[in-house]
Amino acid sequence: MMLFIKLLLAHLIGDFLLQPNRWVIHKEANKIASKYLYLHILLHFVVTMVLLWDFDYWKLALIIAISHYFIDLGKLYSNSLFRNKAIPFFIDQLLHIIVLYACAYYGNLIGQTMFLMALIDWHLVTAIVFVSFPSAIIMGKLLEGMSNKIELDHKSLPNAGKYIGIIERLFVLLFIILGRWEAIGLLITAKSVFRFNDLKESNNRKLTEYILIGTLLSFGIAMITGIIYTNS
């Protein structure tokens, strides 16, 4: 585990702390011809070796550096294929972590993976998945008749309400698992404060009732899920 942690730390330092934004821009513009691409890879190799502090690991560091080069190169040339630039970023990071994991446990990769799989709390995973997008869809269906009667605010960010609801339900689920019910009250209060000005300015009773029902429904779903999980 310590080897993987050190490799991950080296990756975080090399990819985020020691990579200026101008390097990223230069790489995106020049791709394989960018000098900063090769400097970035060299930096990863050096940081990995420094953190491992054992010359016997030079082959491991070299494999990581070379794989990093090809993964980054693939990202640079595939960026234009995605409208949402966050997608290639997260794919890139996932591939890097997979390589680090494989290098750290290359001697017992299958055994370690099976061990980690056995540690997964599938009840918790199911609860987390449920309060995210499935709950958002369920709420959308339940509130569909009401939402058709509400004038849309075109100043709002696309799907902002859906993602706010998902985040708040995840927080509620976390607080219930930790046994901190009072934090749920603080969360409701904070949301009410942020919503107060919007509702005051709109002076729309239907919108106020819609938001109130949606909020109570969202918190209720998360609380019921949390109670079921903690008693499972």
UniProtKB/TrEMBL annotation:
Residue ranges crossing the lipid bilayer per the database entry: 36-53, 89-108, 114-139, 170-190, 210-229
Name of the protein in its database record: DUF3307 domain-containing protein
InterPro entries linked to this entry: Phage_phiKZ_Orf197
Record key words, sorted: Membrane, Transmembrane, Transmembrane helix
Species of the source: Maribacter arenosus
